[in-house]
Structure formats: C-alpha cells, structure tokens
Predict the 3D structure of the following.
Amino acid sequence: MGETVGGTVEQVRALVGWVGTGRKLTQTGRVTLADARALVEVLDTGDRMDPVIGDRTFKTKSSEELYHLTLLVEWAKAARLLRTAGGRLLCR
C-alpha cells in the first residue's frame, strides 16, 4: 500500500473514479464483497482477502474487515468526494 500522502491521494482519486455513476452498497452501507475484491487489487490497499494462517483459510465475510479499503472510503466521504444515498455509493 502507498504509505506516502501522494500514494493515498492517488488511491482516493482512483476510488472516486471507480465509483463513477454509482455503486451498490450492502444493507449495512458497506462496499459489497465482490467490489471489495476488485478494489483491494486496483487500489493496492495491502488488505488481504481470505487470509491463510497455517493450514487454515479465514474467509473474509465483509468489506468492513478490510481496514485500509474501509479507511479510504471513509476518507473520501469525509472529504465530501463521495456520499451515500438510496443504498448506493455516489460521487458528489
């Protein structure tokens, strides 16, 4: 994950571009797991989907478990670049 401010700004910019005309959210207002899988890769958040520890795989059940992705979404909302309405994530 980009640890510099420039890296984070680029990640937020890419997130806003990805949202485009809007993306569906879960009933709890989170990014869907399918979208989260794509975003972790596209944004290079450093989050791990379905982490493996030893011989066990721990299934990721919610995008809320993906700390860096959740942080980027919340920062974009706090900066008023994104908003939620009608169960969708939208650009402002």
Q: What stands out?
A: The two ends are 26 Å apart (CA to CA). Helices lie at 5-19, 33-43, 67-78.
